[in-house]
Amino acid sequence: MKRFPLATQEIGSIRKPRWLVKLLQDKNVSNDVKEAARSDVALLNLKLFEDIGLDVIYDGEARRVEMYEYSIRRIEGLQLAGKIRSWDNKYYNKGRCTKKVRYTGPYHVDEFLFVKENANKMIKLPITGAYTLADWSYNEAYKSKEDFTIDLAKKVIRPLIKDLVKTGADFIQIDEPAATTHPDEMQLVVDSFNESIKGINAKFGIHICYSEDYSNMYPEVLEMKNHQYELEFANRDSWNKGTSHSNRNGYESFLKTFKEYGEKKEIGLGVLDVHVDEVESPELVRDRLLYAVKMTDNPNLIHVNPDCGLRTRSRETSFAKLKNMVIGTEMAKKRLGL
Amino acid sequence: MINYWSAGIYPRNEKLIESTRSYDKTLEKQFKKEKSRLLKIQSNNKLDYISDPLIDWDDNLRPFTDNLRGIEKGPLTRYYENNTFYRQPIIKSKLGTTGNILKNNVCFDLFTSKSKVKIDILDPFTFYDLSANEFYKSEEEAVNAFAEIIKKELNSIKRNVQLIQFNSPSLARIEDIDRLNMVKKAMEKIVKGLDTKTCLNLWGSDISNTLEKFQEFPVDIIGIDFTSSNVDKFDKIEMKKGLACGLIDAKNTKMEKSSVIIRELKNIKKTFSPESLAVITSWDFEFIPEPFADKKLQIMKQIKEKSKMMKL
């Protein structure tokens, strides 16, 4: 796949409009009408992303309840147990594995075909990875977490990816927000990723967020057959402008390690904090990018994205942040003569 | 006789979750009503110590993060290896407290006069470890500052409490003897003059290499998380303290079998010969949904009845 420097992209979810949430909750509205409404929002998101000027897009996960629950509901052997706190008053529906898992047919294919038909930009399709599905679920069926995770990779995620690639997906982002939760399980993260994509020809990214220190992924992650990392950084970075180490303290540790290991994979650099309403200025985005380019010596390796899905922010805030991300990227490109 | 109690934050039920999300005006009343219900459930399931289910706490540190002088709220940060995040306290200047944080954030008005009350609080090292220190010059200085805060807080409520449980997941990870000695000294300052039974609950790590050192800590009971520490890894010892056994897995929906737990208890008794024995949850119950937590409390009651019959 063609590489181009500082390509801007979304990570995944955008908050659904209030009217859609209301309509989806209305028991008197038929499923056909609900599906049509979801399509309207998917199309709206695509066109808004294109208008803002993102280079790589998807539909803001307009058809998914949530990245984890959506998958749990579609995998045999898993069922929902109930709600668990993510933080403060935010909860997610946690699954439990009560028998060996089995793939019962493709999910995400219809939404991908819709995006493919309507998008005028490059497409990156996000799916939830085996390790996160296992880590976030209660294991009542397998002897070990390793057995559970690898079974999910081989028997569910790999056939799913095969089906998606068959329909034309050529850039898939495997979401593994749990990847760095247990530093001593990094080999399992790598093994399950590699098992998931074994024998499949496409570009693969891995999205990881809210790690204590991404440097802990090394050296195991060198064996991972991904082409891109999409990582959260802005949440831990200062809001000061500038490209010094002290101003860019959120990026320094990982980028140093990345360089030390001679990595040639792309980094989707998180430049927007998705947990605050303050909108990053274009100059701040620019400086974060210039710093990453300075540290890696290669603008082709740097792609630009928010830290994570923006669904916890209002749509207005999300689009304002993305707009500044694109403007800031243009400023960085100009400064670099790209 | 074996004692029973649960630890930390209890899960919110579905209705309460919805109410917190919609900022329902009756939320405070709902919390109070639900707390009363959960206290009753603890009593009905024959727990020996009853504790505030803390369902109105956004995380284990939040009342302190919100109310301590010298602290600013930091970023959302992963709470150990869980898919749960807390707001990290950032120490910006000298720590201080009015001493009323626990008083104002624990439901002392809801306990019955018959209840033996247990209070949960983090130990000073865990407080320090979960914070970002931008003020104190050393780890020791910061740990001692938290120890002073904890002491002041506990002194203001100790008359209403029969058991103080220090929840210590960060401390449980330490193996360095000098650091353990430093925390031990800080704990000595906290418990001096406290005159209340104390438990140091070492959550989430295998402490088979450090148990001997923890025995020197100035507490009455050591809590071991047996979902993380395998009994067989410990050498046979004569414990000089009580032992609280985290045998009820608060992080998995799989239900314990009372017969298996009783077998484990016999094994534990043989290995540790503790002064007293208790069965507790391995972590906060908030890591499993409310109906599963309820069932696990019922299982604790079954274990209690069976172990009584067997005169364990």
UniProtKB/TrEMBL annotation, chain A:
Name used for this protein in its record: Methionine synthase (B12-independent) (MetE)
Highest classification ranks of the organism:
Archaea, Nitrososphaerota, environmental samples
GO annotation, biological process:
methionine biosynthetic process; methylation
EC class, as a word, reads: transferase
Q: What gene name does this entry carry?
A: metE
Protein source organism: uncultured marine thaumarchaeote KM3_100_D10
Tell me where the signal peptide lies.
Answer: none
Keyword terms of this UniProt record: Metal-binding, Methyltransferase, Transferase, Zinc
Q: What cofactor does its activity depend on?
A: Zn(2+)
Molecular function (Gene Ontology), one example: 5-methyltetrahydropteroyltriglutamate-homocysteine S-methyltransferase activity
